[in-house]
Amino acid sequence: MHNSLLIDKLKGKPTPRPPVWFMRQAGRILPGYRKLKEKYSFHELMSNPDLASQVTLMPVYDLGVDAAILFSDILVVPVALGMEMSFTGSGPVFQKSLAEAEKPSQELKPDASRLEYIYRNIDTIINQKPENIPLIGFCGAPLTTLCYMVQGTGRNPDFPEVVKYLYTNKRDARKLIDAIAGMSAHYARNQIQHGVDVFQLFDTHAGLIPADLYMELFLPAIKKISETVRNTGTPFIFFPKGLGTGIQYITPELTDFVSVDWQMPLRHARGLLPRQIGIQGNIDPRLLYAPQKDIAESLEKLIPFYREHPNLIINLGHGFLPDIPYENARFVTDWVKQVNWSG
Q: How many helices (H) and strands (E) does the chain have?
């Protein structure tokens, strides 16, 4: 891909400024998305190729970001593993949680064809997107995916049933993690075959368990997905939210960039990660409630960091919150594009 700041940055090439994009940029805060939501459900937007393409590309035009990210959901992998899910007003809910089963890993009925509609969406997006704008594909990491599968909903963010399962039934947990990793790797490979340029693995709940248990149970599964992606030459970004100082165990063999949450200062993250791994993040999404003058003051701290460590992608430490002012999100991208990064 020519003239893509994000791809150049991910591949270690010099760029005039850091690229900028946002997690959860496709939806929520965009006036155009809210208008579509008056007519269509989330499921309809996700399953119609033209609507999914429209929503995916909306932030490129409305926010001025340097990349599009596929409009989809992290819970499509559990559906492909045989679970039945519906989107409700309070979020996705599985018909039957795996916590109800004695051996959750034996409840799965994998059917990869349930992901086919997403590849059709990608085909449509590729045909409609600007040439210099890369498309980011993604899926949920095995721990985050397992959390929703076992608990059935995300209503209790402490996921007590999940933690109990991991400690009391480690052997079955490993089988379930392997199944999730296998389907996720298949899904990632197909996204790339259909044209995504970058792949991000989201582990929103990486901080749920101790880092050493995380590495023991989940690192092999993450490696499997990462190798599938990187063996195709596609850059890989890993977002382990809440992992804290556990990021020191992440190696260049695992990922190209680590997306850092807002709890971890960038300089601290830079000290913990190997030099070859780039950093993405870590703006607190709630900063975007502040007056634009205060937002700019906070962003200015990124300039000296970038001059010292140019392998940086500007992003949030997690996704947009639904009531963040659209104007403030646009302000951030405009600020990144206008400021003098080179000194």
A: 14, 9
Do 296 and 332 contact (CB within 8 A), yes or no? no
Q: What is the DSSP string of 280-320?
A: EEEE-GGGGGS-HHHHHHHHTTHHHHHHH---EEEEESSPP
Q: What end-to-end distance do the CA atoms of the chain give, in Å?
A: 28
Two structure tokens written together for 225: 């997905």
Pairing relationship of beta strands 85-88 and 91-94 according to DSSP bridges: antiparallel
Q: Are 250 and 273 in contact (CB under 8 A)?
A: yes
Say which residues have a Cβ less than 8 Å from residue 108's Cβ, sequence separation at least 6.
81, 82, 83, 176, 179
Q: List the structure tokens of 332.
A: 């951030």
Residue (of 67, 196, 199, 59) closest to 132 by Cα position: 67
Phi, psi of 288 (to 5 degrees): -75, 0
C-alpha 245: how far from its chain's center?
20
CA angle 245, 250, 253 (to 5 degrees): 170
Q: Which residues pair with 260 in a beta bridge?
A: 281
**CA distance linking residue 330 with residue 343, whole number of Å:** 24
pLDDT in tens, 175-184: 999 999 999 9
342 three-state secondary structure: coil
How far apart (Å, rounded) are the C-alpha atoms in residues 18 and 1? 17
Mean pLDDT (10-residue bins), the chain, 343 residues: 90 96 94 96 94 98 98 96 85 87 94 98 98 97 96 88 96 98 98 98 97 97 98 98 97 98 97 98 97 98 97 97 96 98 87
- Other CB atoms closer than 10 Å to residue 109's CB: what's the count? 8
Nearest by Cα to 234 from 265, 289, 190, 268: 190
Residue 121 belongs to what H/E stretch?
Answer: helix 116-128
Chain Cα centroid distance, residue 144: 11
pTM across the whole model: 0.97
- DSSP assignment of 67-117: -EE----TTHHHHHTT--EEEETTEEEESS-GGGSSSGGGG----GGGGHH
- The answer to whether 280 and 245 have CB atoms below 8 angstroms apart is no
